[in-house]
Automatic annotation (TrEMBL):
InterPro entries: C56_PfpI-like (IPR006286), Class_I_gatase-like (IPR029062), DJ-1/PfpI (IPR002818). PANTHER family: DJ-1 PROTEIN, DJ-1_PFPI DOMAIN-CONTAINING PROTEIN. It holds the Pfam family DJ-1_PfpI. This is Type 1 glutamine amidotransferase. CDD domains: GATase1_PfpI_like. It comes from Paenibacillus ottowii.
């Protein structure tokens, strides 16, 4: 039995997600035994990544209940600027935060956490391009491949995916033991 067997994770999708920043963590978490559900504004819609890789939403945001899941992954690219406009996405991220369930964010995904107003006093990283946004939201920003602060795991960009995937799985596994 893999260490994440029985765990369920939401991976958010919208147009122009960063292809690697969605799929690498999804496959990494699945590799460890967790079930990952892709969620978008429209169930069954095929969203296209920045480099043309599709991702079909298995669920609509509105169908999801945070209590049914153990973690959430927010990809980068331009999708976060769209994702943060959905009240249900903000609600889900806030509920995961309140329950101290693992939240993974990479690159521009920090925009979603900013809009959820959960970064005050949290140590994170992101693409340097949104460093000011992160700090203005109260975050303590570090230029490191991966930063884990409690249940929030953040990374800068695609070259950081291997340590990011491992760190998210580690936090998810440790949360599972509670």
């Amino acid at each position: 039995m893999s260490r994440l067997t029985g765990k369920k994770v939401i991976a958010l999708v919208d147009e122009e997600f960063e292809d690697l920043e969605l799929w690498y963590p999804v496959y990494r978490v699945r590799e460890e035994g967790a079930e990952v559900h892709l969620a978008g504004a429209e169930k069954g819609k095929k969203y296209i990544g920045k480099y043309g890789v599709p991702a079909e939403a298995e669920y609509a945001f509105e169908e999801l209940n945070s209590s049914d899941y153990d973690g959430i992954l927010v990809p980068g690219g331009w999708a976060p600027d769209k994702l943060r406009r959905y009240p249900k996405v903000i609600q889900l991220v806030q509920e995961f935060h309140a329950a101290h369930k693992p939240i993974g964010q990479i690159c521009h995904a920090g925009w979603v956490l900013i809009s959820a107003k959960i970064l005050d006093g949290v140590t994170v990283t992101s693409t340097p391009g949104i460093r000011d946004d992160m700090e203005n939201a109260g975050a303590i920003w570090k230029d490191e491949a991966v930063v884990t602060d409690g249940h929030i795991v953040s990374a800068r960009r695609p070259p950081d995916l291997p340590p990011y995937g491992k760190a998210f799985c580690d936090v998810l596994a440790n949360h599972a033991q509670k």
